[in-house]
Amino acid sequence: MENKQLKDNIVGERIQSLRKERGMSLDSLGKELGVSKAYISYIERGERQPGRNILVRLADFFNTDIDWMMGRSDIRSSSEEFAIPRLQPIPVYSCISCGTGLWVNEQPEAYTGAPDWMLRPSKDYFANPAEGNSMYPTIENGDCIIFEQTENVRYGQIGAFSLNGSYYCKRLEKKPDGSFWLMSDNEDYDPIPITGDDEFRILGAYRLRITRKGS
């Protein structure tokens, strides 16, 4: 069974499809799972099979059934068998900086929607249009970024952050010396240090993006 799955590459194709639906790069998905982008690439090309632990984490992150990812079922999520997929309304606030910092209006300006199966149940979400290219190629200027509301973000994960009244979409990193930084994916942008004197808050964790092309 495993050899047939490896030959047909059902697992890899479905993981790649899920990743692209979220607008995620190999690197960003790898960081979500705590593995290298090369490992994700091997899985997608059918050169390696993910272990049970990785499959469980992928299923949780993408809100899908493991049997569907492995090609054992045509039902993507157990809820699909009994419910008509619907869009979950998500409030959209003003632009968040993928650059050097912006102030964000705390009242929603509009609403967007995302299919239930793309979001985790019992979680709250908010969205911001991206302004700037500091997170390119993971996030592009003009993309609508959907965040899961939380005060906890893993190191290396993309999130929404408030620093001294300005709002950023960056990666939170902890250096070996114990210092904390907001990091960009685009190397043209300098890291932003977070000091003990700063007013810093974690607002949310990146879940997916709606691109300007609508993909």
TrEMBL record:
PANTHER family: FELS-1 PROPHAGE TRANSCRIPTIONAL REGULATOR, PTHR40661. Residues 15-69 form the HTH cro/C1-type domain. It comes from Faecalibaculum rodentium. Pfam families: HTH_3, Peptidase_S24. InterPro entries: Cro/C1-type_HTH, Lambda_DNA-bd_dom_sf, LexA-like, LexA/Signal_pep-like_sf, Peptidase_S24_S26A/B/C. One of its GO terms (molecular function) is DNA binding. Keywords: DNA-binding, Transcription, Transcription regulation. This is HTH cro/C1-type domain-containing protein. The keyword Transport does not apply.
